[in-house]
Amino acid sequence: MKRVLFVAVIAMTLVGCGVVDKVSTDHNNPPCNLTSLKIKEIKIIGDKEGFVARAIKSELYKFGARVDKDGVEMLGDVHWNVNGTIPMSLSLEAPSLSFASTARISGAYIGMDTVKGSEELGEEVGKDFCACFAALMLPPSLPIKK
User: Among 134, 138, 146, 144, which Cα is nearest to 34's?
Assistant: First the structure.
């Protein structure tokens, strides 16, 4: 029994107990949790074949957002490059949340297409929503003890 315990301790020392996500206490970069965000629909003017809306949904769902028939409706507008092949900028508004996001692709990316451009814009919107919701969820300041 002692040998098994000794071998286990040595193995854990060398290998570790596994990967554990570090809990961030940095309020400037808190973990993203969008489980309270319920999305009814995302309507984007100029969205060709729904690529941009799907990319935004995908990004928000990664962080816990859910589909709900009573959820928020998001409205947006996307602008494309001159050739109409890459979405270059997006403005998105969730009126019932009093929240808006803008995203831009700042440079021409070689080999970028509609899907990749949509994913880039979706990631930017996801970052905005994470920052906004994290700010809303910050713990209140502790009272000063007398």
Answer: 134
Residues 31, 33: Cα–Cα separation, whole Å: 6
pLDDT tens, residue by residue, 53-68: 999 999 999 999 999 9
Q: CA-CA distance, 120 to 124, in Å (whole number)?
A: 6
Residue 10 in this model has a pLDDT that exceeds 90? no
Give phi and psi for 128, each to the nearest 5. -60, -50
Question: How remote is the C-alpha of 17 from its chain's centroid?
Answer: 29
β-strand partners of 74: 42
Helix, strand, coil percentages (3-state) for the chain, rounded to 5, are 40, 25, 40
Q: How far apart are CA 25 and CA 15, in angstroms?
A: 26
| Per-residue pLDDT tens digits for 109-139 | 667 888 889 999 999 999 988 888 766 555 5
CA distances from 81 to 3, 71, 85, 107 (A): 67, 32, 6, 11
